[in-house]
């Protein structure tokens, strides 16, 4: 029913456009009969009906198609971590053991900022360092 109403409305619109043009043409030819104008109007009405029906019968939209993409799964790469190598730490002493009178003497002569209570001195970087006698 909806298509029929649309086709009729388009036909009336086509006739409304075509018929006034024949009226002006008729005014210039006063003596001719009115049958030509009616035939042209009917032809316009039929053409409008056919064109309107063709336009109204076309689908408005197509149903959207959803394509579900296949998810792409990748196996994670194995992570190889190197095991830490533990090496024994060798502490070498150079003759003077810490906290001995020789060590106190060496560090207090070498560093003016030597603190005998903590065994540290203030370096040029402003940080405290432990005195290691060589």
UniProtKB/TrEMBL annotation:
<dbReference type="GO" id="GO:0030246">
    <property type="term" value="F:carbohydrate binding"/>
</dbReference>
<feature type="signal peptide">
    <location>
        <begin position="1"/>
        <end position="27"/>
    </location>
</feature>
<comment type="function">
    <text>Has immunoglobulin-binding and hemagglutination properties, and can bind to mannose. Essential for virulence. May be involved in LPS biosynthesis or polysaccharide transport.</text>
</comment>
<protein>
    <recommendedName>
        <fullName>Lectin-like protein BA14k</fullName>
    </recommendedName>
</protein>
<keyword id="KW-0472">Membrane</keyword>
<dbReference type="GO" id="GO:0016020">
    <property type="term" value="C:membrane"/>
</dbReference>
<keyword id="KW-0732">Signal</keyword>
<feature type="transmembrane region" description="Helical">
    <location>
        <begin position="37"/>
        <end position="56"/>
    </location>
</feature>
<keyword id="KW-1003">Cell membrane</keyword>
<keyword id="KW-0812">Transmembrane</keyword>
<keyword id="KW-1133">Transmembrane helix</keyword>
<keyword id="KW-0430">Lectin</keyword>
<dbReference type="InterPro" id="IPR012413">
    <property type="entry name" value="BA14K"/>
</dbReference>
<dbReference type="Pfam" id="PF07886">
    <property type="entry name" value="BA14K"/>
</dbReference>
<comment type="similarity">
    <text>Belongs to the BA14k family.</text>
</comment>
